[in-house]
Design a protein that fits this description.
The protein is α/β, with parallel strands linked by helices. The protein folds into 2 domains: 167 residues, Aspartate/ornithine carbamoyltransferase (Rossmann fold), CATH 3.40.50; 157 residues, Aspartate/ornithine carbamoyltransferase (Rossmann fold). 41% of the residues lie in helices and 13% in strands. The chain has 14 helices and 9 strands. Strands 7-6-5-8-9 form a 5-stranded parallel sheet. Strands 2-1-3-4 form a 4-stranded parallel sheet. β6, α8 and β7 form a beta-alpha-beta unit. The longest helix has 22 residues.
Length: 353
């Protein structure tokens, strides 16, 4: 179990350091030593990560959580490194946690948004990336409305690239922090039943979670109205070679049936434009069939937890009492994002080729 191994190792490290009269560093985070066993220069999605690599990130995140528990949560691990947060879409949780993660690790962090920059004057993405590279960007954390934009960035600049969400494609750090919460809760998620309900078709969070959770051995069930499922999934997603290039998962239309004995139930945000358009009849109809309610969660495992990547439409995809109830881990997800993003920045910059 990842969290148990980290905890036991940290206790041993603390004891040895105390005997030597030194301050213990979190196990798994050798701040003053090069990382020689990490092969990735960028984090563009989780589908390129092996199970061991995902667990390595999450164990490093556990160690980073120890840093956050200090009276002064600071370390010079990335001192002298310049990180640019390049966000073409509005974001509160992701951008603020990446900014704080970089600063806690000792890096210089600069925020650049689409509004108020040369982008408004017509500067292309490549021109912006070349500018950041020219002024000394060691890493770029990037959110963009176009799927694939971080891949372009990784081929344009010499520094490291972290995908903070691209179009409808991927959101790797969200998937990693979701797995982190599940590991904290259950120790091992292999064989655990995870139900993801909502707008699967347009969700980059769902896609990245499919890869990370199946890689870690979870049994994933997707639930959505037919218009909010990829067309290939409507025909069935149990083929060994999925037509979308996605891992094999179960697809259901009946949420009440899908949540039975589930260990994790994760809701996805329904955007207002889906409700105003032709994909869904109304928010009331969606809520009737797919809202996470206390009655539905009661059908899950007694130890089941409820998750949501945020922001939430309370009363639409999730009931208020469920969002803020004892089984909710939604606030914990936000907190976990900081430690996970610290781990990602540290491993890429200190260990990436």
């Amino acid at each position: 179990m990842v969290t148990e191994q980290i905890t036991q190792g940290a206790q041993t490290s603390t004891s040895q350091a105390a005997q030597a009269g030194q301050t213990a560093q979190p196990v798994g985070v050798p701040f003053d030593e090069p990382i020689t066993d990490w092969r990735h220069r960028h984090l563009l999605d989780v589908d390129t990560l092996s199970k061991d690599e995902i667990l390595r990130i999450l164990s490093t995140a556990s160690a980073m959580a120890e840093v956050l528990d200090r009276s002064v949560a600071r370390t010079p691990a990335l001192r002298g490194v310049t990180i640019f947060n390049l966000f073409y879409e509005a974001s509160t949780r992701t951008r603020s946690s990446f900014e704080l993660a970089g600063k806690i690790l000792g890096a210089d962090v600069i925020n650049v948004s689409g509004s108020g920059s040369s982008v408004e004057k017509g500067e292309s993405l490549v021109e912006t990336l070349n500018t950041l590279s020219a002024v000394g960007a060691d890493a770029v954390v990037m959110r963009h409305h176009a799927s694939g934009a971080p891949w372009l960035a990784s081929r344009t600049i010499g520094g490291h690239v972290v995908n903070a969400g691209d179009g409808q494609h991927a959101h790797p750090t969200q998937a990693l922090l979701d797995a982190y919460i599940m590991l904290q809760e259950f120790g091992d998620i292999s064989g655990r039943k995870v139900v993801i309900v909502g707008d699967i078709l347009h969700s980059r969070v769902a896609r990245s979670n499919l890869w990370s959770l199946t890689t870690l051995g979870a049994e994933v069930t997707l639930v959505a109205p037919r218009p909010l499922l990829p067309s290939a999934m409507v025909r069935g997603a149990l083929e060994p070679e999925h037509p979308l290039g996605l891992p094999s998962v179960r697809v259901e239309s009946d949420l009440d049936e899908a949540v039975v004995d589930a260990d994790v139930v994760m809701g996805l945000r329904i955007q207002n434009e889906r409700l105003r358009g032709k994909l869904l009849p109304s928010s009331a109809e969606y809520a009737r069939r797919y809202q996470l309610t206390s009655d539905r969660i009661a059908k899950a495992s007694p130890e089941a937890i409820v998750m949501h990547p945020g922001p939430m439409n309370e009363g639409v995809e999730i009931a208020v009492d469920v969002a803020h109830g004892p089984q909710s881990r939604i606030e914990a997800q936000v907190s976990a994002g900081l430690a996970v993003r610290m781990a990602v920045l540290f491993l890429l910059i200190r260990g990436g080729a």
